[in-house]
Sequence to fold (306 residues):
Amino acid sequence: MSLVRYESVSPAAEWCAAQRELGKTIGFVPTMGALHEGHLGLVERSVASCDVTVVSVFVNPLQFDDPGDLERYPRDLDADARLLEGIGCDLVFTGTLPQFFPDAIDEMGSLEPGTLRSPGPCAEGLEGDSRAGHFIGVATIVHRLFEVVVPTRAFFGRKDYQQALVVQEVARRLGGPEIEVCPTSREEEGLAQSSRNQRLSESEREVALILSQALASCDAKWRSGVRDPDTLQATLAAPFEGASGVRLDYAAVRDLAKWTAEDPIGRLDSCVALVAARVGPVRLIDNLILGEGEACEIQFGAGSRT
Ligand code: AMP
Fold:
């Protein structure tokens, strides 16, 4: 089957409904486009495990707190479609905010507040603190995308760790789809791939390596037996102190299961380290599950719907 491409929402919803009628399982990868290997890895997982694969490309204005960032976000649907065709994707679609929410756009073109979805408790702290309204925007569009596509399984990247927790909550409330979170795809030197990396100069790319290096030194601390969250957090933040060209936003460790900084006795059982920092014009995020590296995969089993 060759790639079907729709630039509005209704035909995409109809295409997906027809696939469901045929009894096909639908794998879904929501993206904002400017696709790179990280995205393509998710698509390949979907192609390998579902009958048909659907990718959405939508630069969701609801999740941007900085209008400049929204405006400068890279967009190239033709290039994205070429990449997707080459790896067996079946449908790529995009749309506009009014197409996604036809009954909820006010006279100013904004979404009516009643349509916004709560992102749940995992949205608190870290990205939730740094980017006002970001996870409300994520929860709202992901909820809507799941209603449009009604996927069997949806694929997300661990690079956006907290987002994956929010998405899991959305899926839990909707009763599906199953959420699969895939490992972070990195450049050879360790930089996590991101559409925003396109906006980094050569020298800024070098500077940006500090994020993955800081995570690696925190991982080494963990592997040496350290479980005290303050020590781990200090290890994570240390490389940023005095470093030029980079401004640390946060360096944090969280217990994997409880999503808190520490348990009552202040020792972590299993832990994810997370960093956010600004390099030149771009804000970057990255994380690592300590002691497990990239090989491990988290499966959020939110009851599947077929
Ligand atoms: P975005 O286009 O940035 O909204 O990302 C779309 C999906 O791709 C999200 O689930 C991201 O977590 C995932 N993603 C982005 N970058 C990477 C990466 N380097 N490795 C794995 N997944 C990624």
The beta strands are 4-6, 26-31, 52-57, 91-93, 153-157, 178-182, 246-255, 271-279, 282-289, 298-300. The first strand starts at residue 4 and ends at 6. DSSP finds ten helices and ten strands in the chain.
